[in-house]
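Example (one chain per record):
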Amino acid sequence: MNFLLLHRDELAADGTARLVGRRAEHVRTVLKAEVGQTLRAGVVDDRLGSAVVTAITKDAVDVAVTLTATPPPAADALLLAVPRPKVLLRMLAHAAALGFARIVLFRSWRVDKTHLQSTAMDPAAQREQLLLGLEQAGRTQLPQVHFCPLFKPMVEDELPAMALPPQRFVAHPVAAARTHELALTAAAPFALALGPDGGFLPYEVDQLAQRGFLPVSCGPHALRTETALAVLAGQLDLLRQRGSVRS
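Predicted structure:
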């Protein structure tokens, strides 16, 4: 935890809050904070600022919170074929840390049905990982997660109503387009569709392409889903920041 993430209902009217459990233990034993120390802080779906430690006991840590900055709104979307349960939870944390605002989980052909019955599909377990990702990155906007159990209804019926960003990409190891060849609009959001280990079927890639998702590859070697998320999100964000890379 590099950042103290609070919930609005934890703040008293005077801006103070009492931490117990995992966060209090982390402040005491990992950050080794002392009374008077200032920590980076923020409130879920709200502003950023700082928290001054006002008291430390064996059971709790008291802080006085000051919120001073409004973070830029996140707008990127991740369409993720449900991976193995442990991988899914890690990837949710990664996606939150990377700044995705929306995550659409769905079952593609290569997704094992048993993955959908795991505890990793529990919204509470997913929320916990999303919050951990925000803590790691120092962000406050909690991604919204939506689940579509079947691929075909998702692309045909639900996708058109999702209002996804116009810059859309689908990861495909054998795609002709490479990420370094892309031209992204500066500061504009993007949507990234990522298949399971083994990738999407050609039919699935084609269906997404028909709905504006450009098939792209980040190199000649197949990557695990977790690695592909980090690589592609980082590359697309870099291209967006440059805003002038040739197509």
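Caption: The longest helix spans residues 225-242.
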